[in-house]
Every structure is written in C-alpha cells, then in structure tokens.
Write a structure and sequence with these properties.
Number of strands: 27
CATH topology of the largest domain: Thrombin, subunit H
Shape: elongated
CATH architecture of the largest domain: Beta Barrel
Number of helices: 5
Radius of gyration: 27 Å
C-alpha cells in the first residue's frame, strides 16, 4: 500500500516538475525582454510577475531611455530570466468609434498596370521597355515632380516622342530610367502604356485623438493598393467626416462591410500610412472631457472587453467582446490580440466584425487597450487587434517634438 502511495507521489512530483519546466520555457521564449510599464510591478497573469531587482537604481517615470534591471518570475518565486524594466508616464487619449472618411494621396503616381498599343503598325509598350513595373511610384519626369495623374499624362502627351528622364521608387529604393513615349495609331497622341493612380479613399473608424499632441489615429492596419497589393506611400491626405448609409452582414467566407459616404467636413491631415495604421494631425483638436488611459501591453488580460463602433443609426456604441488570446511577441505585427464578438446586438446588425470597423477602439477595465484590425473570413465573430500603446508610439512619430 505504501509503495503505491509513493509511486503516485513520485508521479505527481514528476508531472508538477514537467509543468513547471514548460512554464519556465514558455516565459523565457514568449514573454518580452524589455517591458514598458506605469506600475512598480508587472503581472502578466496569475503565473508570471516582473519586479525590479533590489540592487537596481530607481528610475523616475518618463526616463524610458534608462531601463532598470528586473527579474521575470514564475509564481512570484521561481526566476525565469532577467529583463529590462522601463517606467513611463501614463498617457491619456480621447477614444474614437466614429466613422470617418480617409483620403490618401500617394508619393508620386503609382504604376498599377502596363499595356501595349499599336504605334506605326507595331505593338509597343514604352513603359515595359523602360523597365517600369507594377508597384513602382514615378516621382519625377525630366526633373519635374509629378503628384497627380493629369500632370503625368500631360507630360507624356506633350513630349512629342522625345526621351524622358524618369525617376521612380521601387520597394523603397530610388532608381532612374529613360521612357520614350510613342504616338498611338488609335488616338494620334503620345502614350507610354502605363496605368497609374495618384490617390485612394475609403471609410474606417477613428481609434483615438491625442489631444495633448494634436494627433489622430485610425484603422490599426495600413492601406494597400488593390491592384499591386503593396502598401501605399503617402505624400499626404485628409481625414473627413463620413455618414453610414448601410451595412452588409458578414458570413463565413464572405467579409461584410459598412457602407458609408465621405463628407466635406475636414477633420485633420493624414501624413503617415504604415502597417500599423494611418496617422495624422487634427486641424482643430476638440475640447473633450472623455479622456481615458492607454493601457500598457502587460495590463491587458484575456477576458471581457468592449469595442466602440458606429454600425447603426449613425451613433457610436459600446459592444461586448471577449479577448481570447494575447500575443506579445515582437514579430506579432498587427495581430497582437484575437477577439471574439459576444454582443447579440452587434451580431444581429453586422454578423460580427466587418470592413469599415477597422480602427474601432477596444476598452478593457476603463483603459484603451487596442483597435480592431482584421476579421477572420472563416469566422466573422472573430478578428485580430493591435495594441493601443503600439499605435500611440507610431502616432508620436508623426510629430515627436510635440508628443506628450
């Protein structure tokens, strides 16, 4: 009898030891080495805590360039790894949720396609012959900057077939080539066989306004060209008012959408388009008293939360969701959280997460924790979200000198 008890105890001890080793390995691999926080102690969940080492020099809030040494511990006692702890001041923003119009102007004119045409009875494609490709951004022609379709087209038509020195950007690298327009047999005008675009527009949801810095953020993901599937380099743009005119419900395999009409009222200047969203400056930052704290990544937990969105009657409303998974890995991009819609009213109206809800702020425990970015096509109730403090860091880059 005693031997059976001992065997069971040994088996239990082995299981516990294995679980502890797995938990230590997970914390070492998956939890960050550099942690920014507003608190003296960081608790990722019931298992892991981070505390400053007793011999670490105290650092005042705001001195984020001087991290202190700290230890990540399992169950508050078992050391997992040494980490760096940055103490920073709490930031406050005004949460969005309103539908907005987004107008983005590209840097130069974007090549979205090439074609051939008849010139003197021969099939020609001057753009292709010059080595230009879909996705290239044409920056200047004969030293003259081009920022609009009509400017580029006029230079081509007026060339008389003479060689044109073209400066272009491809994958962030600037190059030069010679483009020789040809006269089209069909129109009698000089052409180059390039399809181009200089702007794009759509609707999204405002994530927040940083009143102290005068900056605004939306989408939580970048704007990509529909033809080239490459992110658009913004040379400027505008945030405008927008009106909801209808909803297409999402279903398995088919993303729904908010249908809106972009208004004439300018809200701000769009100056930055990146994988983490679109950012700019408010023209006239409003006087608002609805400021809420921006959560640090370590303050976000799996569990209930709310999103703020405008999906019915033109009014922004809070809807219940569940944060199901948190990914704090540095390479997580915009997929920092997996969320699931649980609110019956939102499900009834939209079927879950739909296009146009990108940027909808996520609030948990009275703090802004993130923004909706993408929907799962195979399950419209679920989607990805980006951390709010990651968006705030990108927002600060719009005008770091004035950021709070």
């Amino acid at each position: 009898m005693m031997r059976k008890v001992i065997r069971k105890l040994n088996l239990l001890a082995a299981v516990i030891s294995t679980l502890l080793l797995v938990a230590v390995a997970y914390g070492d691999r998956r939890l960050p080495d550099l942690i920014t926080t507003c608190a003296d102690e960081v608790r990722f969940n019931v298992l892991y805590t981070v505390t400053a080492n007793s011999d670490a020099v105290a650092v005042s809030a705001g001195e984020t360039d001087s991290p202190t040494g700290a230890t990540l511990r399992l169950l508050g006692t078992i050391p997992v790894k040494n980490v760096s702890l940055n103490k920073t001041e709490r930031r406050y923003v005004s949460p969005g949720g309103e539908l907005i119009g987004i107008l983005l102007r590209t840097q130069g004119v974007l090549v979205v396609g090439t074609e051939s045409f008849l010139s003197e009875g021969k099939n020609v494609s001057p753009g292709t012959e010059a080595g230009l490709k879909t996705g290239d951004a044409i920056l200047s022609v004969n030293g003259e900057e081009v920022g609009a379709n009509q400017d580029f087209s006029a230079l081509i038509e007026q060339s008389g077939g003479a060689d044109l020195a073209v400066r272009y950007s491809r994958n962030g690298t600037v190059g030069q080539t010679v483009l020789k327009p040809r006269k089209s047999d069909a129109t009698g005008k000089c052409k180059c066989g390039l399809w181009i675009r200089d702007s794009t527009n759509g609707i999204g949801t405002l994530t927040y306004t940083d009143l102290a810095a005068g900056t605004v953020a939306s989408l939580g993901h970048g704007i990509y060209d529909v033809d080239t599937n490459e992110i658009l380099n913004a040379s400027g743009g505008e945030f405008r008012s927008a009106t909801l005119i209808g909803v297409t419900k999402g279903s398995v395999g088919a993303a729904g959408e908010l249908r809106g009409m972009i208004g004439e009222l300018p809200l701000g200047e769009l100056s930055f388009n990146c994988d983490g969203g679109v950012y700019g400056r408010m023209q006239h930052p409003p006087e608002r008293s609805d400021l809420i704290a921006v959560a640090m990544e370590d303050e976000i937990v799996c569990g209930s939360a709310q999103i703020i969105a405008t999906v019915k009657d033109g009014e922004k409303t809070c809807y219940d969701i569940e944060i199901e998974k948190i990914n704090r890995a540095n390479n997580a991009g915009t997929k920092n959280m997996v969320i699931r819609v649980t609110d019956p009213a939102l499900i009834e109206t939209t079927g879950g997460i739909v296009q146009g809800m990108s940027g909808s702020p996520i609030v948990q425990n009275g703090m802004l924790v993130g923004a909706v970015t993408h929907v799962f096509l195979n399950d419209p109730l679920k989607g990805y979200a980006i951390f709010a403090d990651k968006m705030l860091a990108l927002s600060d880059s719009v005008n770091p000198a004035e950021a709070a």
